[in-house]
Design brief:
Order of helices and strands of chain B: HHHHHHHHHHH
Number of strands of chain C: 20
CATH topology of one domain in chain B: MetI-like fold
Oligomer: heterotrimer
CATH class of one domain in chain B: Mainly Alpha
Radius of gyration of chain C: 25 Å
Number of helices of chain B: 11
Largest sheet of chain C: 6 strands, mixed
CATH superfamily of one domain in chain B: MetI-like
Radius of gyration of chain B: 20 Å
Structural class of chain C: alpha+beta
Number of domains of chain C: 2
Shape of chain C: elongated
CATH superfamily of the largest domain in chain C: P-loop containing nucleotide triphosphate hydrolases
Strand content of chain C: 35-45%
Largest interface: A-B, 39 and 33 residues
CATH topology of the largest domain in chain C: Rossmann fold
Strand order of the largest sheet of chain C: 6-7-8-3-9-10
Distance between the termini of chain C: 34 Å
CATH class of the largest domain in chain C: Alpha Beta
Number of helices of chain C: 10
Shape of chain B: globular
Structural class of chain B: mainly alpha
Helix content of chain B: over 70%
Order of helices and strands of chain C: EEEHEEHEHHHEHEHEEHHEEEEEEEEHEE
Chain lengths: 307, 233, 358
């Protein structure tokens, strides 16, 4: 009899869990009729917790639920092309342009910017501190090629926006990325997110290109410093793009527009500008609203709400 | 060393205080993997029985194939399910990508082969005299099957435990089709123990990772201990 | 009830049964005896539809059970079987016994009542809630017997049911077999390699050798009048002497290696035969010096060995060929029998069974 009872209890528990599992998987309509917004974002916006800071405000205001998939810009763009998300948040101008030109995205709005930094060990074996970014890359190349001890460069290597930026700087420095840079002993591709790349750079006491936001978030845990943090080549502009509703009509078009407009609203622009100041003593991002000339985009792209 | 000790102590604190974040992830993991295991059982056990007692050409090769599929890499399953349920895939219209349902599907597909194979082993391990006895008592085909399964119930229970263990501990498929989403609502989130450990480690939150790791270990060990306890009664 | 007609079963190239023909009558206990590996289990499995024969026909109540497939289940449900290896389901004793009734859709009250009856029948009253796996081998086998009996089979098949069991369990199961047959009229077919068990329980025996029934008959027939030298050896006749029939005048004379022996035989002069003499029928007496013994079955010889066997001794005497006798210890002492002692061996012509030598 005792055995029977145990089996019965177990059966009921399993059934309950099963039911929970089923209801737990009903994603289209939560009881409160909440709409869902799917966002694919670059890791830097996610790992700095900026989105964790912004989404609750949005969710409450629009009675929505924001689902965020974080990956490199390359991964985010892939999700966008497949129509698996409603909004992209990325930072790679060239690929954004291609994405828009191919008809996958519409309504690009720039909402934030900051600067990339070249990070490395305090000892700075290649001696790049204080240089411009292009000069610094040339110096690292020379030091790497001459086998200077301790000189290693860790690349994201994951087709992310940061990786694109890094390739662009190598190009500006006069190198062919695939023939001159890839495959060198001193050059290693991590193939992972920014946080993991910083952790790896720290382990190897190497150089790397990072967005300032992620670096500041990790700074307390690593023995790395920002060696190069000035120069136009380091500008890092974040935008949001809506997936083209003509291509994927059943994306959440309305909510995607709301999100984009939410990001460029005065209130949120202020939130972005002040985010992280309390914790790191400096902002992780700058609001794009009033600096459109400085970052080389049109006024419409930072100010005009999506209709 | 300091990092490990520190992380471990923080982990203990998170567990002892039933940190809501850690608990939500743990409960979600259990629900998703348990659902996958139940669904996989519904396929694998009858399938295993059919293969074990069936006589058809290619039976041996089929068993070999199933055993080969034991080592089906989780990311391959993840990729396959991703391609099928992504918007442009054949089942894209169902909008399953980045949902717990997608994770359940992937885990179900992942563990069906090993559960089928182990079911075959469990059933073929039943004493032939027991099988003869059932037939000599006048069992119909269905009565025969259900009673052999009943006789092998502990071995099949172990099969279910293995399936659950593999489901809850895999990360490759979970992250590909789930997306590791931490949404405001419990039901929309797809962050489970393994994907959370992966993310937290990459974000440098070692103590969080250790806490989640301990919970995962406790669940996996707990299931197996429970099964062992039942078997030894 | 059961008719076997030229039944054969090959496993690959191995011929296990090679043309078994015989008949089991309703209400009798029929024993299939034979050495290990002679195919006894296979024969029972064929009858219970657990295997299909390679050739031949098995009829139960006139139904050809291996061709009339639509009747398979109902034929099998007429029969109950107990296997050599005690096997119980991993459940309680009561649940074990209920299985067959559940298969037949019996209602709960009936099942409970029958379980109780069956447990009492096999002497396991009150064992219902025990885990069957915790029982001893003998108890498990009794559970198996109860499990087969609750379905009230018309035919009960027992495949070496007492092999490997302790003597108490053996006695209990043998007793049950007799009672089941007597009280319920169940036709019982059982196999055994223990010829004495066959003799104790069976109304008739079939001796399975080399894939066929070498002999079918009552225990008395088989034990006293074995049909062949192999059967004779199997049923425990220790003295088997080769010879040739030399004359036939009432009791015929047989020449066995130059020694003449008188015996009753149906065979004509010149036929090669074997003489089968039970040890129990051979007497040993002290040799009487100075007197030559010519007459019939009184043979002089020399003791070659005295081997204890239980409360008896087996005394072997060389009198041209070896003959063994079973004597009590006291008799051995009285006659002062030991190796090398000269004795006379005697036996009556009636105690000699003659079979053809092939």
């Amino acid at each position: 009899m005792y055995r029977r009872t145990i089996f019965a209890v177990a059966a009921v528990m399993v059934a309950l869990l099963f039911i929970c599992g089923c209801t737990g998987t009903t994603t289209d309509q939560t009881p409160a009729e909440k709409q869902q917004l799917r966002i694919a974002t670059t890791t830097s916006l996610y790992d700095t917790k900026l989105l964790d800071h912004l989404t609750p405000i949005f969710e409450e205001k629009y009675n929505a639920e924001v689902l965020i998939v974080s990956g490199g810009t390359g991964k985010a763009i892939e999700y966008g092309q497949r129509g698996d998300v409603d909004v992209l948040m990325v930072h790679d101008r060239a690929r954004e342009d291609a994405f828009l030109a191919d008809g996958y995205g519409v309504n690009r709005r720039v909402f934030a910017y900051n600067y990339f930094v070249v990070i490395g060990p305090e000892s700075d074996p290649a001696g790049i501190k204080g240089m411009g970014p292009v000069q610094a890359f040339k110096t690292i190349y020379a030091a790497g090629e001459s086998n200077t001890p301790g000189v290693t460069f860790i690349s994201r290597g994951d087709a992310s926006g940061t990786h694109s930026k890094e390739q662009a700087i190598w190009k500006a420095a006069g190198f062919n990325y695939s023939t001159d840079i890839q495959g060198n002993d001193w050059y290693q591709e991590a193939g992972t997110g920014m946080g993991a790349t910083i952790a790896m750079t720290n382990e190897k006491q190497a150089y790397a290109l990072s967005d300032i936001g992620t670096f500041l978030a990790y700074k307390g845990d690593v023995d790395l410093v920002a060696l190069v943090d000035e120069g136009d080549a380091l500008l890092n502009v974040y935008c949001a793009m809506q997936i083209n509703p003509e291509k994927y009509p059943d994306t959440n078009i309305a909510l995607a527009k709301e999100w984009t407009n939410f990001l460029i609203s005065d209130e949120i622009q202020q939130e972005i500008a002040s985010f992280g100041v309390a914790e790191y003593g400096q902002p992780l991002f700058y609001a794009a609203q009033n600096d459109w000339e400085k970052i080389g985009v049109t006024e419409a792209e930072v100010k005009d709400p999506v209709a | 060393m300091y990092e490990i000790v520190e992380g471990f102590l923080e982990a203990i604190r998170l567990i002892v205080t039933l940190d809501p974040n850690v608990m939500a992830i743990a409960v979600r993991s259990i629900i998703i993997s348990l659902t996958a295991t139940i669904i996989a059982s519904l396929f694998a056990i009858p399938l295993g029985a059919a293969i074990n007692f069936g006589t058809f050409p290619g039976r041996k090769s089929l068993i070999n194939l199933i055993q080969t599929l034991y080592s089906l890499p989780t990311v391959i399953v993840g990729l396959l399910i991703f391609l099928l349920i992504s918007r442009v895939g054949p089942f894209g219209f169902m909008r399953l990508l980045f949902t717990p349902t997608a994770m359940i599907i992937a885990q179900t597909v992942l563990i069906i082969p090993i559960m089928t194979g182990l079911t075959i082993s469990a059933l073929s391990g039943v004493d032939p005299v027991i099988r003869d006895t059932l037939r000599s008592l006048g069992a119909t085909k269905l009565q025969f099957l259900t009673n052999v399964i009943k006789e092998a119930r502990f071995a099949i229970l172990a099969t279910v435990a293995v399936g659950f263990g593999r489901a809850i501990s895999e990360v490759g498929a979970a992250i590909l089709v789930g997306g590791n989403i931490a949404a405001a609502s419990f039901a929309s989130s797809t962050r489970v123990l393994t994907t959370a450990i992966s993310l937290e480690t990459s974000m440098g939150n070692i103590s969080q990772s250790i806490a989640l790791g301990i919970v995962l270990l406790v669940i996996a060990l707990g299931v197996n201990l429970a099964i062992a306890a039942v078997q030894h009664r | 009830m059961i008719e076997l007609e030229n039944v054969s079963k090959y496993f690959g190239d191995t011929r296990v049964l090679d043309g078994v023909t015989g008949k089991v009558n309703r209400g009798e206990i029929f024993a299939v005896i034979g050495p290990s590996g002679s195919g006894k289990s296979t024969l029972l499995r064929l009858i219970d539809l657990l295997d299909t024969p390679t050739g031949g026909t098995i009829r139960v109540d006139g139904t050809d059970i291996h061709t009339e497939h639509e009747k398979s289940l109902s034929v099998r449900r007429m029969m109950g079987m107990v296997f050599q290896k005690p096997a119980v389901f991993n459940a309680t004793v009561a649940e074990n016994i209920a299985v067959g009734l559940r298969f037949r859709g019996a209602d709960k009250n009936k099942i409970d009542a029958r379980i109780k009856e069956a447990l009492d029948l096999v002497g396991l009253g009150g064992y219902g809630q025990r885990r069957a796996r915790t029982l001893s081998g003998g108890e498990m086998q009794r559970v198996a017997l109860a499990r087969a009996m609750v379905i009230e089979p018309e035919i009960l098949l027992l495949d070496e049911p007492t092999a490997n069991l302790d003597p108490v369990s053996v006695a209990m199961i043998e007793d049950l077999v007799v009672r089941i047959n007597r009280d319920l009229g169940t036709t019982i077919v059982f196999s055994t390699h223990d010829m004495y068990q066959g003799q104790r329980l069976a109304h008739r025996l079939g001796v399975l050798m080399n894939g066929v029934f070498a002999q079918v008959g009552t225990p008395r027939e088989v034990f006293t009048l074995p049909a062949s030298r192999e059967v004779a050896r199997f049923v425990g006749i220790e003295n088997i002497v080769e010879g040739v029939v030399v004359s036939e005048n009432g009791t015929s004379a047989v020449d066995a290696g130059g020694i003449r022996i008188r015996a009753r035989s149906p065979f004509g002069a010149g036929e090669a035969i074997c003489l089968c003499i039970r040890s129990e029928d051979i007497r040993i007496a002290p040799a009487i010096r100075g007197r030559r013994v010519f007459d019939g079955n009184i043979l002089p010889g020399t003791v070659t060995s005295v081997v204890p066997r239980g409360p008896f001794s087996k005394v072997t005497v060389d009198c041209g060929f070896s003959l063994s006798s079973i004597l009590s210890w006291k008799k051995v002492d009285d006659l002062n029998l030991r190796e090398g002692r000269e004795v006379v061996v005697s036996f009556s012509p009636e105690s000699v069974h003659v079979v053809r030598r092939e």
